[in-house]
Amino acid sequence: MKKTTVEKLNKVLDVTGDLIPVERKQKAPYVEMTETDLTSDYDFSREQYHNLVTKGNEALDELLAVAKESESARAYEVAAMLIRNLSDTTKELLQLQKTKKEIEKDVKDPHTVNNSLFIGSTKELQDLLLEKNNGKRK
User: How far apart are CA 39 and CA 41, in angstroms?
Assistant: First the structure.
């Protein structure tokens, strides 16, 4: 007699009984992000990155002092890893700046569309285009 997947899982997990049906939950409603949200999130993230870099620099100074005193290869390895992490955090801070500028540009910079309308006959338009092309070739 074949066991179903549920029976096998019940045996492995030492559980008795059937599965309880789960109600499907609706998706969370869409929340529009305003410019104040963006600014406050940016300020918070920027402050956190600055705090991380500051504390990391302090920890690095102490770690390098310990590494010099102990002359341990492991201590220098940990210092090198901390330097790499500080470097990555600094790059993430710059990436945060770039991302904010891109978002602000998308929000504040509407695209300008200029439509030109030629009023005249087809012959006049062709003459104008030929004149323009001849001017470029010279």
Answer: 5
Decide: 70 and 61 in contact? Cβ < 8 Å: no
> Does 94 fall in a domain?
yes
Tokens of 116: 């030109």
DSSP state of 120: S
Report the predicted TM-score, pTM, of the whole model to 2 decimal places. Answer: 0.49
The per-residue pLDDT string of the chain (138 residues; one tens digit each, 9 = 90 and over) reads: 567 777 777 777 777 766 566 676 667 666 666 667 778 888 899 999 999 999 999 999 999 999 999 998 999 999 999 999 999 999 999 999 898 888 777 666 556 667 777 788 888 888 888 888 887 655
> In the chain, how many domains are there?
1
83: domain range? 33-106
